[in-house]
Amino acid sequence: MKEIEEQLFEVLVDDPDADGGLKGAQKQAEPANFLRHVAALSGSKLGDGLVDAKLVLSWLLTHLGAGAGFIGLLVPIREAGSLLPQLFTAGAIGALPRRKWVWAAGSILQGLAALGIAVVALVLQGAAAGLAIVGLLAVLALARSVCSASYKDVLGKTVGKTRRGTATGLAGSVSAAGVIVFALLLLWGPFDRAPLVIAAILLAAGMWVLAGLVFATLEEDPQPRQNVLGLRQSLAQLSLLRQDGQLGRFVVARSLLVGTALAPPYLLVIAAGQQADDRHLGLLVLASALASLVSSWVWGRMADRSARQVLVWSGVAAAVALLIAIALGAMGHAGTAGIAVVLFGLMIAYHGVRQGRSTYLVDMAPDDQRAAYTAVSNLVVGVVILIAGAASAALAMLGGAWVIAVFALASVAGAWVAFGLKEVS
User: Fold this and answer.
1) In degrees rounded to 5, what are phi and psi of residue 219?
2) In 10 A of CB 243, how many CB atoms?
3) Do residues 360 and 424 make contact, with C-beta atoms less than 8 angstroms apart?
C-alpha cells in the first residue's frame, strides 16, 4: 500500500522531490497524507456541491413553499456563518496537540445537519420547513467554520509547501465530477426532482461523515499544547492586521472579491423570464459543477506556483463574467442558457478565489500562527459578507444589474489589491 501511495503521489504532484518544508516523520508520511487530504476534501466538497445554498437549497425551499424571506437568508448564513466564529474557536483549536480531530468532528457534524435537512424536507412544508432548514444550515455553517479554522494548519503540517494547492485543487475536480452526475440526472433523469434533491442531500450527509472518518486517519505529529485564549485575547488577535501589512492587504483583496459568492442569486434577478423549472435547476447546477471540474485542479497547480496571481486573475475573470451578465440583460438575452454561461464563468472565478486565498494564507502565515491568521481573516470577511449582503439586497430594489455592476467594480479593485501582494508560494 505504501508503494502504491508513493507512486500515486509522484504522478499527481508537479515535483514530488522538491523540499516542501516538512521534516522527519511528517516528510515520510506525506504521500499517504496527501492522498487522505484529497479523499477527505473530495467528500466534503461533494457535500458542498449537493447542498449548495445558492442553487439546491433555494430550489428546495421554493418547492416547499417556504417563502422568499427564508430563501434570502440562505447564502449570507452559509457564507458568514462559516467565517465569523473562527476568531473565537481558533484559540481552543490551537490548544490541541492534534487538530485533525477538530476537522473530523466538524465534518461529521455537517453530515448530521445535512441529514436533518433531508428529514425536514420529507415531513414539513411552508414556513416551518423554511425555519427548520435555515436553522440546520446555520449548524452546518458553524461546523464548517470549525473545519476551516483547523484545516489550513493541518494541511501546512502534513503536506509540503509546493503540493498544497494540488491537493485541494484535485479534490475540487473530483467532487465536481460527482455534482455533474447529479446535474445530469436533474436535466435528463427519469426521476421526480424533489425526491432526487432529497436523495442528493442524504448522499451529501454520508460523504461528510465518511470524509471525517478518512481525515481522522491522517498521520499528524502532536504539537506542544497552547493556552486557550479568552474572549479578550481572541479579539486582541485582530492586531495582526496592523502588525502584518501583507495580512491586511490580503484581507482587503479577499473582501473585495466576495461578489463571486454573493452575485449568483442576482444573476437570476436580471434573467429574462425568471420562472425556475426543473431543467432550469439542472442547467445551473451543471454549469457550476463544470466550472469546478475544469478549473479547480488548474487553479490548484497555478496556486502552488503563485497564489497571488491566482487571486489577480480570479478577480479579472469575475469582473468579465459579471459585465457580460449586464450586457446580456441590456440586450434582452439573459435567459436560462445565457445566465448558465455567465454562471459558469463566475464560478470559475469563485473557485480561483477560494483556491488562491487558501493557498496564499497557508504559505504566508508563520507555522505557529496559521490558525490565528485564518481566524482573523475569516472574521473580517464574514462581517464584510453580512454588510455586503444587506447592502446588495437594498440596492437590488433598483434592479439586479446595479448589484452586479458594483460586484464587477469590486472584483477589479480586488484584483488590483491582490497584484500588490508579495509572492509567498
Assistant:
1) -90, 105
2) 8
3) yes
Q: List the CATH code of the domain at 2-10+25-218+239-419.
A: 1.20.1250.20
pLDDT, tens digit, 9 for 90 and up, residues 110-160? 999 999 999 999 999 999 999 999 999 999 999 999 998 788 788 888 888
| Alpha helices by DSSP H, 220-333 | 231-236, 240-243, 245-256, 259-262, 264-269, 278-331
CA–centroid distance for 43 within its chain? 13
Q: Which pLDDT tens digit goes with each residue over 369-390? A: 777 788 788 889 989 988 888 8
CA distance 301 to 297: 6
- Closest by alpha carbon to 61, among 184, 194, 246, 160? 194
Residue 276: what pLDDT? 46
Identify the band that residue 362 occupies on the pLDDT scale cut at 50, 70 and 90. Answer: confident
Domain ranges of the chain: 2-10+25-218+239-419
Compute the distance between CA of residue 114 and CA of residue 287 in angstroms, rounded to an integer. Answer: 23
Residues 6+ positions from 123 with CB-CB distance below 8 Å: none
